[in-house]
Amino acid sequence: MKERASYTPEEKLKIIMDVLSKKVSIQKVAEDKKIAPTLISLWKKQAEDAMMARFQPQPKGRRKSKPEAAPMDADSRALKNEARKAKIKAAHLEASLKEMKARYAKLESQISDIVAAMGSRMVKVRTPRKQKKAE
């Protein structure tokens, strides 16, 4: 398996500066350095975004400090853990339901094919609804 190459911020900066100054194309740098052109494009976009953010107008006055998050007590931690487990179970059940619906549709199609091969017609049976009791 090929080991991933890592590049220092200085190397990335040099590559991006060459591309931004139009000295070389992204394709040429990609071939020379054996880097995917999409990765160089990503670095270029990140550099452009960082430059844009640097020159955005800043709000006047003191910066508001972020309030520190209060430590969670045992009950809150337990509830959060329970909610996480419920989400996982719900996702699992949704996936199972989707799979069962697909299997049902496949079986229904196979039954229709068998019935058609037999020369009959398939009739769906409806179950009657329960009537509410009159008080």
Write a structural description:
With 135 residues, the protein is mainly α. Among the domains are: 9-54; 85-120. It has helices at 9-20, 26-33, 37-54, 74-118. It is flat and about 75 Å long. The mean pLDDT is 84.
Strand content: under 5%
Low-confidence stretches: none
> What is the overall number of helices?
4
Large-scale geometry? flat
Measured between the Cα atoms of the first and last residue, the distance is: 75 Å
Helix percent band: 55-70%
How do the helices and strands follow one another from N- to C-terminus? HHHH
List keywords for this structure.
135 residues; mainly alpha; 4 helices
Topology:
Layout: H1 9-20, H2 26-33, H3 37-54, H4 74-118
Helix pairs in contact: 1-3
Task: Give a quick summary of the entry.
With 135 residues, the chain is mainly α. Helices cover 61% and strands 0% of the residues.
